[in-house]
Amino acid sequence: MIRLKDVEMEYDNGTRAIQGISLTIEDGEFVFLVGPSGSGKSTIIKLLTSEVEPSAGRIMINGFSVSNISGRQIPLMRRTLGVIFQDFRLIEKKTVYENLEFVMRAVGASPKEIKKRIPYVLNLVGLEQKSKSHPTELSGGEQQRVAIARALVNNPNTIIADEPTGNLDPERSLELMSLLVKINQLGTTVVVVTHEKDLVDRFGKRVVTIEAGRVVNDSIGGYVGGRIHG
Ligand SMILES: Nc1ncnc2c1ncn2[C@@H]1O[C@H](COP(=O)(O)OP(=O)(O)OP(=O)(O)O)[C@@H](O)[C@H]1O
């Protein structure tokens, strides 16, 4: 479960990016985070991944209290989260398989676990034929699916995706969002930041709308007076 309670966040230059957000995301939920540019969506993601710290309030992530977490606990907390970045952040010198192997090794997975898990996640994202390819040999959509496989490979409780369809055409965006829905149906909590109004409308999931660092709407389908932000 993810819980933000009265969270505020101010950047060093004085920008008050988050101005009092309380939000609970239960295990197994699928949530879209939408809102205008600069409203604070990426800052929320950064708060969840501990890239930035709140100036006030409390954040709980999968049983960890982020506000007073010890240095030793941070890797354990991060392991409950699979993060998908907009710019993929794949290692170009490694093959698809090696990219996944790398993150499994980083958490101490055994060779046996690695051998079993990687084909499973590659199959889930439809890339079992591409395990020996390098990221530069793949299309944008395929690279994005490798990024999803990498986020999933250590079996996190929660997947967080910041604009995962940013560089994809509408058809690929739909495929990718459908894949995230499938992953959610297999039991993983999914939080997706997106600008894609049409896609959000299509899926009928919970939509949290952020404006000027606050939650202005939180509902299924996400309509605010008949229109949706984002
Ligand atoms: N590193 C930073 N230093 C100072 N201010 C920042 C920093 N990053 C973001 N901001 C500011 O914080 C506010 C929220 O930014 P954030 O990136 O969270 O918005 P966003 O909703 O993700 O926007 P977009 O949809 O354009 O990605 C904005 O006013 C932005 O200018």
Automatic annotation (TrEMBL):
It comes from the Bacteria. Residues 2-228 form the ABC transporter domain. Gene3D superfamilies: P-loop containing nucleotide triphosphate hydrolases. The keyword Acyltransferase does not apply. GO terms for molecular function: ATP binding; ATP hydrolysis activity; transmembrane transporter activity. It is a peripheral membrane protein. One of its GO terms (biological process) is cell division. It is found in: Cell membrane. Its main location: membrane. GO terms for cellular component: plasma membrane. Keywords: ATP-binding, Cell cycle, Cell division, Cell membrane, Membrane, Nucleotide-binding. Belongs to the ABC transporter superfamily. Part of the ABC transporter FtsEX involved in cellular division. Homodimer. Forms a membrane-associated complex with FtsX. This is Cell division ATP-binding protein FtsE. It comes from Pusillibacter faecalis. The gene is ftsE_1.
